[in-house]
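# nightly structure sweep
# worker-07 picked up a monomer target from the shared queue
# config: single-sequence mode, recycle default, output format = C-alpha cells
# input follows
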Amino acid sequence: MKFTAEQIAGILEGTVIGDPNIEVSKLAKIEEGIKGSLTFLANPKYKSYIYTTQASITIVNSDFEPEEELSTTLIKVEDAYGAFTKLLEYYNQIKLNKSGVEQPSFVSDSAKIGNDIYIGAFTYIGDNVKIGDNVKIFPNSYVGDNVSIGDNTIVFSGGKIYSDCVIGNNCVINSGAIIGADGFGFAPNEKGEYSKVPQIGNVILEDFVDIGAGTTIDRATLGSTVIRRGVKLDNQIQIAHNVEIGKNTVIAAQTGIAGSTKIGENCQIGGQVGIVGHITIGNNVKIQAQSGIGRHVKDNEVLQGSPALTYGDYNKSYVYFKNLPKIVKNINEIEKKVDGYN
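# output follows
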C-alpha cells in the first residue's frame, strides 16, 4: 500500500516541504532509508543522516531548518517522534485489518460472536464462548469452552486460551502464549509418588493487558490467577497458579513467579528474575535483572542480587565482592604477623 506525502501530512496534521505527491510504501531508519521509504528525525545525534538518506519522505520537528541541500521531502510536525509513533500505530491497524471467518475453522454453534471480528483458518472456538466486537483471532489459535473475550482484543497465531478463562477489552495475546494451562499441583503419597491435584480455577486478564510470545499463565487451583489492568508481560514468562499481578506492572522476559504470590501495582521487574511462592511484593517496587526474591517486599523497594538485597546495599557489597581475594590475602598476612608476635 502506498501513501503520498500529502496524505501522510493530513494524518499527522503536518506541513509538506517538497513534493506533496511523492509516494512511500515502507518505513526505515534514517541511516538506512531508500527510495520509496519514510523515516523520521527526532534525535539530534542523527541529524547528519538527513543530508545523505535516500528516504523519499522524512518527518522532522517544525523548528528544523536544513543547512545543506536535501533530496528527501520533509513533513514538519510539532513532535517528530510522537508523529512517527502515531504513524506506526496507523500502519499496524491497516496491516491487521482483517475480517470474517476463514475456512477451515471450527466455531461452536453455542458460541456468541460480536461484530467486525476476524477468525483465522484452523482456529477452534469452543462451546459457550463469548467474543466481543472487533476481536481478531489469527490462524491456528485455540479458544476453549466457556471463554470470554472482550472488545478489541487480538490473539495472534498459535495463541491458546484454555476453558473458563476471561480476557478483557483491548488485550493482546502474542503467538505461542498459553493462558490457563494447569498449575503445577502435585501431592506426594505414602509410596513417594506424586498424584495430580485437579486445577479447577481459571485465569482473568483485565483490560489493556499485553502478553508476550511464549508466555504461560497457569490457571488457579481454586479461584483465579489474576492479571490486572494495564499489565505488560514480555516473552517467555512463567506465571504460576493463583498469582496476582497489580495494575500497570511490567515484567521482562524469562521471569518466573511461583504460586500464590501477590505483586503490587506499578512494579518494574527485570529479565530472568525468580520469585518464590506465597509472598507479597508491594507497590512501585523495582527488581533488577537476574535477582532472586525469597521474602516479602515492601512498597517502593529497589532490589538486586540473589538472594536480593536492597539496591544500595548490593552496590556497597559488590565493592567488597569483587575485591574478596585481595581482602582475604590481606587478612591472611595480618594473621601471620600476629602469629609471629605471639
